[in-house]
Structures are given as C-alpha cells and as structure tokens.
Amino acid sequence: MPAPLDIDSLQTFLAVVDTGSFTRASGQVHKTQSAVSMQIKRLEEHLGQSLFHREGRSVSLSEHGERLLAYARRIVELSNQTLAAFSNDVLHGTVCIGTPDDYANRYLPEILAKFAVSNPLVEVTVVCEPSSNLLELISKNELDLAIVTQDSRMGNSEILRKEPVHWVTSDRHVTHEEPVLPVAFGRQACLWRQWGLAALGRVGRRHRLLYSSWSTMVLASAVLSGLAVSVLPESAVQPGMRILGEKDGFPDLPDGEIALIRSNDLTSKTVEAMANHIRESLGSNFIAHDFFESPALNTGCLGGANA
C-alpha cells in the first residue's frame, strides 16, 4: 500500500494554488521558495503526476492538479478541525462581514481561504451590498466588519489600500469617440459615478447615462460590448478593456481608497482575527481567483457595485 500523503505538503500545494505563485506561497506557509518547490516536487513524485504547468513566474493547475485540489482541501480542513477539537485556544462563534460585489470577487477568496485554515470552526457570513448600504448596516451593528470605498462620510475607518481609478472603454470599439458619450455608472450614491460626472462637467463633455446599476458585472458588460464608457478601479480592469487618458479627452480621476470599518459593539477575538486577515490580504499584492465553496461560509450577496 502506498505511503499516506503528507498534510504539510498538501497545505503547501493549496498555498501555491491560492496565491498563484511559489514565491507568494512561501510567505504564506513560512518556508523558503526552494523548500516550497521541493515539497511540490516530492508530492508530484509521490503521486506520479505533474500538478502544475509552469510558465515563467506564473503557475496554473494541470489536469491532475485540478483532480487533487478538492481532495487536498477536504484532507487539510478535516485535519484542522480535528486539531481544533482538542485545542483550548481555538476560536469559535460567528463573524459577519460586508463588502460590495466587486470587492467580494477580487479579495474574498484569499481572505476566506487563509481565515478558514487558521479558524476552521468559525462560521462566516458575507453580505454583499453597496458601500453606502454597508455603512448604514455597520451603524446599526448588523455587521461586524465591512470592506468599503472610503469617502468623506466615514469617520472611524482604516485605509487598507489605494489604487488608481480609470475611465475604461472596449478595446474593440470606439464608443469613447461618440459625440454624446454613453456612460455606465453605479447608482446615485456611487462615489465613482460622482467623480465621473463631475469630471465630464469640468471639461464640458456631452454625455448620457445609458446604464445605471449597483452590479459591477453589469457595468463591465456594457463596456466590453461597446455600449458605454465607465469608471473602474485599476484592479477591476478586465481583458478586452482599454484605459482612457487625457490624450483621449478624459480627465484624470482621484485615487480610490479601500477602507475597513467596524461595528461599535464590543469586538471579539474572532472578529479581530478576521480583521487581521483582511488587513494582511489587502495590504499585500493580491491575486484574484474564482470564488469557492466552504461549509462554514454563509453568503448573502444581493448584488452591489462598489461605492
């Protein structure tokens, strides 16, 4: 009978998958990059299959790696739960966090993956709504934490990340050259919409609001199909989009700031642990991944583009 799989090697395998590189994985598992590479090599030799396609500094799962992924998550999760059951220091309870849908897609996979590894018995609830709605929920103590777009209405907030905000159009269309510019923005409370409209007013650019939605997916679809121009943060710019600048007749926009806000209720160790994971993930060079299912995750994503 083959020797059993080494759980430490599986944890390293998952770190490479979740971070998208051997270098970032080394920081997550607190090993050198060469040690990470050696562990993956030994795991591949043990299974007799290649687990990753390596292209320069980037890696992607092979067919066999995809096959191992679900098993590895289950094995590591069960190991963590077993250790937690015999530990006096393990965190229990619940934590409820809020985020707009675009932040959920870009940041939550890394945040939740890391949090679940170290806190397998904590139940996490996620509420997806616009930043303005999340601010109200926080004021009512209906959320523990929220990741939001910073604006002047927020008093006690912690800035975690700053990034440029851009005008974007389709790279296959010339929508941005139309005499009356069609635009797709968030709803009235959206900060990026306010910036965009103010900028167009300053340069006297005629425009018409063609699409208005809280959903970033709707706005991105309008841009990619060549129906409208929009405003998005740099990390949300997708393949098929082109950034517009002053040479195209579009004025610069302010930088966007992503902030963490919290309830005024007494903060538990569980909430503080989640806050630390959010700080760590947003303060580092993140890599976006598809959302994954977790038995301890209860999502309430109702839609809600940023700001």
Any descriptors?
globular, five-stranded mixed sheet, 307 residues, single chain, D-Maltodextrin-Binding Protein, domain 2, alpha/beta, 3 domains, 13 strands, Arc Repressor Mutant, subunit A
Describe the structure in brief.
With 307 residues, this protein is of the alpha/beta class. The chain is built from 9 helices and 13 strands. It has 3 domains: 7-85, Arc Repressor Mutant, subunit A, CATH 1.10.10; 94-161 and 257-301, D-Maltodextrin-Binding Protein, domain 2 (3-Layer(aba) Sandwich), CATH 3.40.190; 165-254, D-Maltodextrin-Binding Protein, domain 2 (3-Layer(aba) Sandwich), CATH 3.40.190.10.
Describe this structure in words.
It is built from 9 helices and 13 strands. It is of the alpha/beta class and 307 residues long. Strand 8, helix 7 and strand 9 form a beta-alpha-beta unit. The protein is 40% helix and 22% strand. It has helices at residues 7-19, 22-29, 33-47, 63-85, 101-118, 131-139, 191-203, 216-224, 269-282, and strands at 52-55, 58-61, 94-99, 123-128, 145-149, 158-163, 165-170, 181-185, 207-212, 229-233, 241-244, 256-262, 297-301. The protein folds into 3 domains: 7-85, Orthogonal Bundle (Arc Repressor Mutant, subunit A); 94-161 and 257-301, D-Maltodextrin-Binding Protein, domain 2 (3-Layer(aba) Sandwich); 165-254, Periplasmic binding protein-like II (D-Maltodextrin-Binding Protein, domain 2), CATH 3.40.190.
